[in-house]
Amino acid sequence: MTFTTSKARQAFTDIDPREFVTLNDPPLLIDVRSQLEYQTGHVPGAVNLSLPRLLLGSIPMLRSLVWPEWFRDIEKDRTVAVICLSAHRSPIAADYLAKQGFDRVWNLIGGMLEWKRLGLETRSGKQP
Asked: Which part of the chain is the Rhodanese domain (predicted)?
């Protein structure tokens, strides 16, 4: 008996942080870490929506409670990118967003650890 496996097609695109910072018109960047992690250091311009809150929004009765208005209003044809600490949570978020109908979803390779290792700019504090 022979078993074959096939790798499922990834529903999102991985992007290197060095490539991301060179974009003339970067997409909305969603930081899926906790609020505390976000406040201690994040990519300038990134908005925070933790992975648990993102996933809880799949329950219709919770959506208005856990998803901020800016997220509920995003057009599905808009490019969005996601980042976390070490690129373990962000692929989950990217896959979820793609399955929710977002056309173009990017995942930042290596997360904030790689971003900081490369010496790229960060900000601290609460989301505006």
From this structure: 23-124
Q: In what order do the strands lie in the sheet with 47-48?
A: 13-15, 105-108, 80-83, 28-31, 47-48
Candidates 94, 18, 98; CA nearest to 49 is 94
Answer yes or no: 31 catalytic.
no
pTM of the complete model = 0.90
In terms of Cβ atoms closer than 10 Å to its own Cβ (0-12, 13-18, 19+), residue 128 is exposed
For the chain, which domains are there? 13-117 (3.40.250.10)
pLDDT, tens only, 9-18: 678 999 999 9
User: How many whole angstroms separate alpha carbon 119 and alpha carbon 127?
Assistant: 22
Q: Which of 51, 83, 84, 94 is catalytic?
A: 84
Contact 78, 27 (CB under 8 A): yes
The percent of residues in the chain predicted with pLDDT above 90, rounded, is: 89
Question: In whole angstroms, what is the distance from residue 35 CA to residue 50 CA?
Answer: 7
| Cβ atoms of residues 81 and 108 within 8 Å | yes
